[in-house]
Structure formats: C-alpha cells, structure tokens
Amino acid sequence: MKNLFGSPGRVSGLVMRVLQCLFASASVGIMVSSSGFSTSTAFCYLIVSMGIQFLWSFALACLDMHALRIKKDLQNHLLVSLFAVGDWVTSILSLAAACSSAGVVVLYAKDTKLCKDQKPLNCEGFQIAIVMAFVSWFLLAISSHVMFWLMASS
C-alpha cells in the first residue's frame, strides 16, 4: 500500500485524528455551554454526531499511537476497509449535523430574528460550535479520502 498523508499508523494520521477529536469536543463543549441549545433538534443532533465522531477519532488515534509505539503497520486490506467505512459513516453524519445546525442558525438570525429579539439564545456560541463542527468534518473528509485511496490501491 502507498504511504499517503494521514495513513493509519503514521504520525500524520495520528495528528489528523487528534485534531478531529479536539474540534469535535470543542464543538460539543461550546454548544452545550450555549444557552438555548435544546430549543432545536438539529443542535442536539450536532452534539450526538460530534460525540460519535469524537469517539471514533479517539479510538483510531489510540490505535495509531499504539502502532507507532510498537512500530506496527496498520495498512492491511481488512483494517483499511474498516477505517474507510467508519470514516464514511461518521463523515456523513457530521456533515448532515453541521449543515442542519447551520440552517437553523440562519433561520434564527436572518429569517425570524430570534437572535436579536430573545436574549436566552446564544447565537454566537451556536455559530462558533458549528464552525468547529465543519472543521472537524473537513479533517474527517480528508481521512475518508485517504482511506478510499488506500483501499483502492490494495
């Protein structure tokens, strides 16, 4: 198999997984600390989706760290296929959650003007959490793309 940026068992793969964990946990933390997040199902879906992404990325980061420590190659067809499917599923969930949450924030801020009229809603916090979710998804999309190419090359 090829040695691509972000491959499992490589330092670049570990760094990408750690960054995915950080941005996903930041998104959850900011969303949960924002007042009024429970007013929308999309925000709750974002929290669940980022939680799943955090757990997936954390598990793979631990696996990468272990592989780097014992100098084990993780690039066999079965593992890469498992990583690819897991990345695809979590990537789709994360993108859907981030897009639906962004749509709700646009509805609140632009269409209904709830962000200006009602103080309990923390729209700035929602927006920051959604940006963190999109960054986390972008990193996961890169990992998913790398896994696809590794799976195709084997």
Automatic annotation (TrEMBL):
InterPro entries: CASP_dom (IPR006702), CASPL-5 (IPR045009)
Coiled-coil ranges (or none): none
Membrane-related topology note: Multi-pass membrane protein
Casparian strip membrane protein domain residues: 7-139
The keyword Transcription is assigned to this record: no
Residues annotated as transmembrane: 14-32, 44-68, 88-109, 130-152
Subcellular location field: Cell membrane
Any one Gene Ontology cellular component term annotated for this protein: plasma membrane
Pfam families: CASP_dom
Keyword list, A-Z: Cell membrane, Membrane, Transmembrane, Transmembrane helix
Similarity annotation: Belongs to the Casparian strip membrane proteins (CASP) family.
Family matches, as PANTHER family: CASP-LIKE PROTEIN 5B2 (PTHR32021:SF0), CASP-LIKE PROTEIN 5B3 (PTHR32021)
Subunit and partners: Homodimer and heterodimers.
UniProt name for this protein: CASP-like protein
